[in-house]
């Protein structure tokens, strides 16, 4: 590893398309996907729907859009959805569910960021003209702010079964679902088919430049197309982008396992540092979140000190730092970053 290399662990969205992916984009068969179809987009939609155990899928420019279209499909203005307090839909999408669809979020605090049945069981509001209607349960897997934790399949099954029995729709923010798939060895379709709708991102660890898909029943996805247009997400020769996503699905899923190994190397560096605490204490996938002891300083100060040594991470709160591993970080880089974390943490503040 050369001295000048910057190790960028701010996010797995910093990944760039390689030569083969660019070649796939260059040679994609294209059409106008709004007035009729783009054959490459259509192929991607078929492939991802089948992978996730659903009838149909629709390609959109971002995970924010697939989530927001998903929420809108299941709810009417004034309806309420249940979600964990630290979820992306509530924290990082500008409250779009309220701005665009008039929805109310009922956020549920948890210790681990992973909802349990007992957290939600009493939360469905009875029919009453004084109250909003509880319509939908949203889960996130892996959980981003939860430090890449994997929501165990049995818990997800219990929650989805409970939701169905009680007339709630279910939506999965699976921006990093393939990380959970690779880490657990449980097929994507087993996770995906538990939900009425599933959003997955191609632009995170999978390494495509742009794009997400929303999967569901044929009827639901036909309706989603209508809302995608309203949100400005109807795209023309988007097969250029779909080709990259198809390449990613074919060639860049299994390698996520390396990212998980590298995240554990980083976590070991954190664990060796007295002024840092791994938070959560386990690393399930490609995200490492740790707390900086206030006696050392703040998270932004810690991140600045790392950046001065060519390791980039993201401050996630005043005291928390996030690092995400991805395909441009190999094992020597992960080891070097862990050593830099340890060295900086050992400074006498
Ligand atoms: C990145 C991400 C999204 C979608 O983000 P976009 O930047 O809009 O594609 C949604 N949920 C989670 C958990 C994410 O990490």
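Sequence proposed for the structure above (349 residues):
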């Amino acid at each position: 590893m050369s001295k000048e290399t910057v190790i960028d662990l701010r996010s797995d969205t910093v990944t760039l398309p390689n030569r083969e992916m660019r070649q796939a984009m260059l040679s994609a068969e294209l059409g106008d996907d709004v007035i009729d179809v783009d054959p490459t987009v259509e192929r991607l939609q078929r492939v991802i729907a089948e992978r996730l155990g659903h009838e149909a899928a629709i390609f959109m420019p971002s995970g924010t859009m697939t989530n927001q279209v998903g929420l809108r499909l299941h709810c009417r203005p004034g309806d309420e959805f249940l979600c964990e307090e630290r979820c992306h839909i509530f924290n990082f999408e500008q409250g779009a569910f309220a701005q665009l669809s008039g929805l109310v979020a009922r956020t549920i605090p948890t210790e681990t960021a992973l909802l349990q049945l007992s957290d939600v069981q009493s939360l469905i509001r009875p029919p009453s003209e004084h109250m909003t209607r509880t319509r939908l349960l949203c889960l996130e897997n892996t959980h981003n702010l939860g430090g890449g934790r994997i929501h165990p399949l049995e818990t997800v099954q219990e929650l989805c079964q409970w939701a169905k029995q009680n007339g709630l729709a279910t939506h999965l923010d699976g921006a990093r679902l393939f990380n959970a798939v690779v880490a657990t060895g449980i097929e994507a379709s087993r996770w995906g088919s538990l939900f009425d709708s599933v959003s997955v991102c191609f632009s995170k660890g999978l390494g495509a430049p742009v794009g997400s898909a929303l999967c569901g029943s044929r009827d639901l996805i036909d309706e989603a197309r209508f809302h995608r247009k309203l949100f400005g997400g109807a795209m023309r020769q988007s097969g250029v982008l779909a080709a990259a996503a198809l390449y990613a699905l074919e060639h860049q899923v299994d390698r996520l396992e390396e990212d998980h190994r590298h995240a554990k190397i980083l976590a070991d560096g954190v664990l060796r540092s007295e002024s840092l605490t791994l938070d959560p204490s386990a690393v399930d996938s490609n995200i490492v979140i740790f707390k900086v002891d206030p006696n050392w300083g703040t998270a932004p100060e810690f991140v600045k000190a790392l950046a001065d040594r060519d390791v980039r991470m993201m401050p996630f709160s005043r005291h928390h730092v996030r690092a995400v591993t991805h395909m441009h970080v190999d094992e020597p880089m992960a080891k070097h970053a862990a050593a830099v974390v340890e060295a900086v943490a050992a400074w006498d503040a």
